[in-house]
Amino acid sequence: MMTDKFKWTVEWNLVISAFKRVGALRYCFTGTIVLLVTTHSIAQRFTHPGILLGKTDIERMQVAVRLKQQPVFSGYEVFARDPASQFNYKMQGPLEMVGRNPTVGQSTYDNDANAAFQNAVMWAITGDKRYSEKSIALINAWSQTLKSITGRDAILMAGLGPFKMVNAAEIIRYTHAGWKEVDIKMTEKHFKEVVYPILKDYAPFANGNWDAAAMKTCLAIGVFCNDREIFEAALSYYTHGWGNGSLKNYIINAAGQIQESGRDQPHSQLGIGMLAECCAIAWNQGLDLYAYDDNRLLKGFEYVAKYNLNNDDMPFEEWLDRTGKYHHYKISDKGRGALRPLFEQVYAHYVVQQGMKAPYVEAVVKKLRPEGAGRPGADHPGYGTLFFAWVNDQPPLGERKSAKPAAPAGLVALGKSSAISLSWIKTIGRNNTYIIKRAKSLAGPFVQIAKNIAADTFVDRAVKNTEQYYYSIETVKDKQRSVDAFPRAAVAGLPKGWRQTDIGAIKTGISYYNGTQLCIDASGKGIGAITDALHFTYTGVTERGSLIVRILPQPSSQFSVIGIMLRADTTTGAPFVTLSLYPGKTGQPEEPDWHTRLESRTANGAETKLIAKGGNLTTQAATFGRLTGCFWLKLEKKGDEVAAYTSYDGNSWGNTGRTTIHIGATGLLGISVASGIQNSTKVRIDKLKSDGTVNL
Asked: Cα angle at 234 between 519 and 557, to 5 degrees?
């Protein structure tokens, strides 16, 4: 289980009866999950070894190397010559702290991580204990010593080298290498307490390769530590994340254009390579993430391969990214033709195993074979010809067999007033179907509401507005049924008495509620001089009332304005008072200087006035201009008097300012969100218990 610091402890100081307390499940459809132990989480066991390389991969490599079968053996020859693949490799660390930008032991860690992983692979192929002993020594030394990962680029530091280290640990642990149980537990603790906290909120402020690095390493940690919560959260972010690195935000259209195509070609390859590594992990756990969204990943690989093979007839769509910082008008030729060793994996899956056409990926594979090291640093695993190629490019015979099918994963539940939409990642198999189950509590009972579903989506229309539901799914394959999928909760609409609307001429926004957390998707420029453009999620307020919200890290747009607003009505020029978290200066190379603003408009159509401006957020909530911690806002109404407060912990409050406004006998009190850019932003807000001051 995760520690309390990661729990969804949502805070709203409103009518507590309006927010039904969820049972044990705490989650948002695109966020980290915290869950009391249930039969669902206990029943779902991971397959080991099962991160980048699974049992079948190891067996295939063993046979091919022993029999010198091509092209695998040619890949092995290159791999075996690498200095990082030697059992006499000289350890360069460990260190108590490593960091990136500024650099602190980055190459030291990455070199040792490469060696730990490659020695583990050599052990798995050859059975020579000298390799396993070297890998164990490296893993143990760093797990015991490393205490912190620092720097402006800490997420990349934690997402690249540690991925190699987790893969090394997985192979060693599950190949009878003699690794001591006490050291295994120490390593689990290290991954979850030193590496994972850096990655848990991903990197929605950055180009998509940052998100991809975080996702793949979170998936790896989830598998190695047998932590279903971490694993499921990363899958949900891959399919529905709000940052640039989720699948649909990184491969932006059906042509396969990459979010970073207008930046340069090395980063475009880095990003899709790491998304492919996520798919390999999912595949080893029985999930066909490769096929998600009509094989969207392959479209991205074909686009990148085609351009880097010097084809010029490339479609390109002008693109503003999710952060609002990176606006590209044409494809970049920077680094064009510098092909990275990451194409063999997708060729082996889509072309060899699935029989699909990928002419440009195939051409790159033929040009690169055998793939070499995944440098620079620890950017890629590399060596795809050894790791993924099939002998003579012949597909395996028949479909993957298992005694029992895997359960679906990455379940997402989104509720509107009259329906709840479900989507999930399919399990491996061509003719699998799915059973949809629903319950009124996490404890169940879960009752079947649909069967023989062949798609990876389902809409439940038999729901009641404001009611909360829990969902799970089973796979049916050859008359065998899987265990239940990791459950998700959703509310049909918003809590009783709550509404939402777009104010001003903006793209349609929406707020989803799951019983614990609001996830708000909104565009708009925010508060204007005399008019506004924002999404408003609100309830009624009379003489007295207060609202406390806790903003969770991190919104996608770095121009986001998020606040508590007391408003006369929903017209664009209506009187209001708002306490907002405001980004200040933004854009490249500048980063937001997050601070609070108390503003008001006292009469319909009047000018908006700044009442008070708070200081920049401290590192408790913002580092390097990124909202890396939680932040609380509080607005209190007593008649015509309105007071505003902020907090870093929900206990100690600072007085931001106060003002007087007359909005009549009734008003609207709620949450305002605007992206500040043409794209939308996603903001997550959760609640705490009422402090008893509400009289609504």
From this structure: 45
DSSP 44-90: -PPPSSBSSSBHHHHHHHHHHHHHT-TTHHHHHHHHHHSGGG-TTPP
Q: Would you say residue 213 has pLDDT above 90?
A: yes
Interatomic CA distance for residues 590 and 324, integer angstroms: 12
State the Cα–Cα distance between residues 411 and 486, nearest whole angstrom.
7
Q: Provide CB contacts within 8 A for 458, sequence distance 6+.
A: 421, 422, 423, 434, 436, 450
Cα–Cα distance, 120 to 127 (Å, whole number): 10
Instruction: Give the helix ranges, DSSP H, for 329-464.
Output: 343-346, 359-368, 384-387
Token output for 367:
């040009």
Helix (H) or strand (E) holding 503: strand 499-503
The DSSP result for 175-191, as a single string, is TT----HHHHHHHHHHI
Per residue in 384-440, pLDDT tens? Answer: 999 999 999 887 765 555 568 999 999 999 999 999 999 999 999 989 999 999 999
Among 573, 648, 649, which Cα is nearest to 614's? 648
| Sheet of 681-686, strand order | 510-513, 517-522, 681-686, 544-551, 631-638, 641-647, 653-660
Instruction: Please state the rounded mean pLDDT for residues 503-528.
Output: 95
pLDDT digits (tens, 9 = 90+) for 533-572: 999 999 999 999 999 999 999 999 999 999 999 999 999 9
Contacts of 484 (CB under 8 A, 6+ apart): 39, 40, 43, 44, 407, 437, 446, 472, 473, 474
- 102-106 long-range contacts (CB < 8 A, ≥24 apart) are 102/151, 102/152, 103/151, 104/150, 104/151, 106/157, 106/161, 106/377
Q: Is a pLDDT exceeding 50 seen at residue 13? A: no
pLDDT in tens, 464-502: 999 999 999 999 999 999 999 999 999 999 998 999 999
Average of per-residue pLDDT across 11-19 = 30
Gyration radius of the chain over CA positions? 26
Contact 159, 208 (CB under 8 A): no
Do you know the residue count of the chain? 696
Confidence label for 687 from pLDDT (cuts 50, 70 and 90):
low
Check pLDDT > 60 for residue 330: yes
Comparing CA positions, the residue from 426, 601, 582, 585 lying closest to residue 503 is 601
Q: For the chain, report the end-to-end CA distance as a whole number of angstroms.
A: 37
Distance CA 321, CA 155 (A): 19
Residue 299 has pLDDT above 80, yes or no: yes
Using alpha carbons only, give the angle 231, 400, 277 rounded to the nearest 5 degrees: 40
pLDDT of residue 402: 59
Strand partners, 612: 598
Q: Please give the Cα distance from 339 to 557 (Å, whole number).
A: 31
H/E segment holding residue 237: helix 228-240
More confident residue, 39 or 36: 39
Peptide bond before residue 49 is cis, with ω within 30 degrees of 0: yes
Tell me the two tokens of residue 315.
Answer: 């479609």
Distance CA 637, CA 653 (A): 16
In angstroms, rounded to a whole number, what is the distance separating the alpha carbons of residues 314 and 261?
A: 11
What pLDDT score does 590 carry?
Answer: 80
Strands 526-527 and 631-638, by their bridges, are unpaired
Task: Specify which residues 638 forms β-bridges with.
Answer: 544, 641
**Bond preceding residue 106 cis, omega within 30 of 0:** no
What per-residue confidence (pLDDT) applies to 693?
35
Closest CA to 344 of 361, 357, 319: 361
